[in-house]
Each structure stands twice: as structure tokens, then as C-alpha cells.
Write a structure and sequence with these properties.
Number of helices: 11
Largest sheet: 6 strands, mixed
Helix content: 25-40%
Number of strands: 22
Distance between the termini: 24 Å
Structural class: alpha+beta
Shape: elongated
Strand content: 25-35%
Strand order of the largest sheet: 16-21-19-20-17-18
Radius of gyration: 24 Å
Length: 405
Amino acid sequence: MKLKKYKLADIAKIEISGVDKKTIEGETPVRLCNFVDVYYNWAITKDKAKRFMIASARQSEIDRFSIGKGMVAITKDSETKYDIGVATYIADNFDKVVLGYHCALITPNPTIVDGKYLNAFMHTQYIQKYFENNASGSGQRYTLSNDTIGNIPVLLSSIEEQHIIGKVLADIDRKIELNKQINDNLEAMAKQLYDYWFVQFDFPNEEGKPYKSSGGAMVWNDKLKRKIPQGWDFCFLEDLLTIRNGRDHKHLADGIYPVYGSGGEMRKASEYLYDGESVLMPRKGSLNNIMYVNESFWTVDTMFYSEMKLSNCAKYIYYTIKDIDFTRWDSGTGVPSMTSSTLYSIKLVKPQNETLKKFDEMISPLFEHMKQISGQNVVLTKQRDELLPLLMNGQASVNYHLSDD
């Protein structure tokens, strides 16, 4: 396979977005495809766009930055050089969905370059190294200049071969996305079960019937200012777990253990900080990103992790606190931050131990299934990333017809 070298600016139109997250009276309402949407997705589909935030934009901004099928978006600015130049493929056409700031919108010339191929090419180590070497800034923020983006060296095969390569990699990503949707559904089932037991108080009574709906006794608790099932109690979060501080970044080398930060899972570490069930709570950054973990892991110093004091309570705690708006408790230091004492002071209903045990037994298979599917996605992502350079340099090929969709 012969590859020809181009500058990105010669084969695509590049627009640097400045559309912010504000809603301004008189402007047109839009959905905003933000930095995190680009960063965490190999492709942007209509299903994903339904969850994009609402903002507003001027008509000139809508004309320039509306996303559509075949385009590619990349992250342009970030606190670390490793988070810039991350690409996503725009897989569908949209109505009034606009790319947000800190991103660049790339519209390929379809006679020369296929959007799926370009997206895949942007994920190669070749291009990531280019971004690392050419990013401007240091310390607080890194950025890609217009010239740096325009001068990206793009290696292209024939447009027919690009279609095939892009399609193969996109099909793998569809399977990854389908697995994510399955996990979303399993998560919704688990949350529904939690609500049924601990919000509606219709956990199974001794006869297997819904407790409250079947006339189970409810008793007023003055500390909680509400009625709770008879035999249940009040507690603070501190009564159920011990909060521990995450550690710094010095162990973030290549390894097998997932590393969690306030923005989600990061990289892999060569050693683990804790092994077992834990609820992770942000200390800085995205304060509402509560996570449940049950494996060997490392967590950085923007996160708290926890050790359980009571058996079978980790999943109960996770669902009880995950929807709390922690931003209203921000300690006000400039960067959104949380203290362990504030978390410890959260008031909780304390179910009977037997109820917690039954809930854990019922919900654990859902969590195990989600973990297995997440593991499949790790393998698929690794296969996709390893296949990527092999397809592009001709070391691997597909010998059957793949039609575009």
C-alpha cells in the first residue's frame, strides 16, 4: 500500500471553535459537543448528542461550527499535553449541534480523505507524538496553534483503501459502543432496584412482599426528619466507611492496574494502592463523579477512596450518595474541592444488616456482568489500537468487500 503525505490544511477545512457554555438571550438554542464529549468518544452519534448540554450560539457560529457526518473534531487546549489532539469522528448529521470551545472542527475533502480514516489516523502514536512535540505552553495549559493543526502531516493511501480501513475500525468501535449501552442498561436496572428498596422502601418483607406497600410499619426518625422502616436507623457516612487520600502521580507508569482521577479512569499503574470494594469520591475537580470500584486500583491525589467498616454496604453507599449535588458544598478555594469532614457528615438511612446483605446478593451479578463487559471493551480497544498502525502501513489487510454505510 503506497502512502502519500499531505498537510492537513491542504485536504481539509479547519475551524477553531470559540462557542462557550453560556445561554444568552436572543441567541439560538443549540446542543454543545464539548471537550469531554470529543475526548471520551471514538465517534459522535445521535444517541450521544441527546445527552449534550444546552447552550446558545449566534447564527454565524452555527454556520461555522455545526457538526455533521464525515467531519472530525479534536481537542485543542488542556492542562496536559497528553489530552490535546484527541480526535472523534462525527458519525451522523445533526440539527443545531455545535462544537464547543477548546476544540477544532475538521471537514475533510471527501475526494482525498475519508473522515473515518482521518479520525483513526489522528489516534496513531505518530500523530500523538507530533502534538506533544508541537504543543505550545507549559505548566498550567497547553494548546495547539492554528498553524500546528494545519501542518499536521497526514499519510494517505487511496480513497478506496481509506474507506475499508476506516470501516473496519469503526465496526470495532460500534461493538465497544454497544457494550457501553448494555452496561448503561444494567446500571439503570441496578439503580431502579436500589430506588425500589431504599427510596420507596419496598424491599421484600418476611413473606417476600413489598414492605411499605404491604403495610410495613414506618417510624418517624427525628434526625432524618422522615419516616423510615421499623428497625432501621440513622447514621453518618463516617459510621460506614473510612476515607483515605489518593496518592500523587509518581507511580503512573505502564502497568495493569487502573488509575482513577476526578475525571474518570486515567492510565494504568505498575502497582496498586488498594484492593477490594471501595467508593471513590472526588477531592478536587468534578465533585459529582462518584464511582464504585471492586478490584486492585490506584487513585490519584484528586480523589478520596474508602474502606468499608460494615459488610455488604459499598453498593448501597454508592447509590445513596452518587446523586448528591456536591458542588453546593464546594470549599471555595478556587478549584472545586471537597473535604473528608464534609463527606463524613452526610446523613444516611441505615438499613438492617440482613437487608443490606440481601440487596448486595441480588445486585452483585449485575455489577459482575458490567465488569466483564468493561473488560471486553478493554480488549477490543487494545485490538483496535494495535490494528490501527498495521492497517495503515500495509502489514495487515482485509480481503473482502466492505460497503460504506
